[in-house]
């Protein structure tokens, strides 16, 4: 592929677009499978892979959240029209 000073052919541009799309899709899917848990230095549970920074809570806090799983799911369902999805 020529990049410096030369024009790319239509076929080369299409091939590059497809390569970039495939790479983008691979990176999007990587985040979904990249969830992991670790014990923090202070003895809390850190969830990695949701965002830029880990979500770190103590075990009692996680237990409260997990105990509300049905309520959280219902709330999300009821307010789906107001909520944005990260793409």
Notes on the protein architecture:
The protein is of the alpha+beta class. Helices cover 49% and strands 13% of the residues. It has 3 helices and 3 strands; from the N terminus they run αβββαα. A 3-stranded antiparallel β-sheet has the order 1-2-3. It is elongated and about 60 Å long. It starts with 9 loop residues before the first helix and ends in a 9-residue tail after the last helix.
Mean pLDDT: 88
Q: Report strand order across the widest sheet.
A: 1-2-3
The separation of the N and C termini measures: 31 Å
Residue runs with pLDDT of under 50 for 5 or more positions: none
**Principal-axes shape call:** elongated
| Rg result | 21 Å
Number of strands: 3
Strand content: 5-15%
What characteristics describe this protein?
87 residues, alpha+beta, elongated
Summarize the structure.
By secondary structure, the chain is of the alpha+beta class. The chain has helices at 10-33, 59-67, 69-78; strands spanning 36-39, 45-48, 55-57. A hairpin with a 5-residue loop joins strand 1 (36-39) and strand 2.
Task: Describe how the helices and strands are arranged.
Layout: H1 10-33, E1 36-39, E2 45-48, E3 55-57, H2 59-67, H3 69-78
Antiparallel strand pairs: 1-2, 2-3
